[in-house]
Specification:
Largest sheet: 5 strands, antiparallel
Distance between the termini: 39 Å
Radius of gyration: 15 Å
Amino acid sequence: MALIRITDSIKFAKEIAEDVTSKGLPSEEDIRSAVKIMNERLHGMGQDRRVLLRAAKVFTIPTDEFEADFLSEPEIQQSIVEDAFVKARLRSFIWLGSVSISGFGVNLYGVDFIEPRHHHTESAFMPLDAAGPRINVQYRH
């Protein structure tokens, strides 16, 4: 079998998340280790920059885990933007654990929504399982 080298940090993070969650709910240590590896790859490859990407779902909530813990269910549901096309900086990979959202995702910063409607938000959370392809990895701002 040939070794496949994954050069996109989102694809790489998805592979790690799938491996960690395949055995059920991961332990806190598993989560911490997975996030560390994901972020080392993101920053080590210089991919923590603004990119264009498509996502099935983005939450326009504060991505600080402490702040997200205090959001109500209606606030979280109102923050969902489905079938989004965004230009944003991939700041870091995180685990967000709340009643509504639980799992690995991407902490986006300086998010410009192109679709479904134009608007801007400072930060957002994109679940890894909702992450689509990067459209242009060479885009810089």
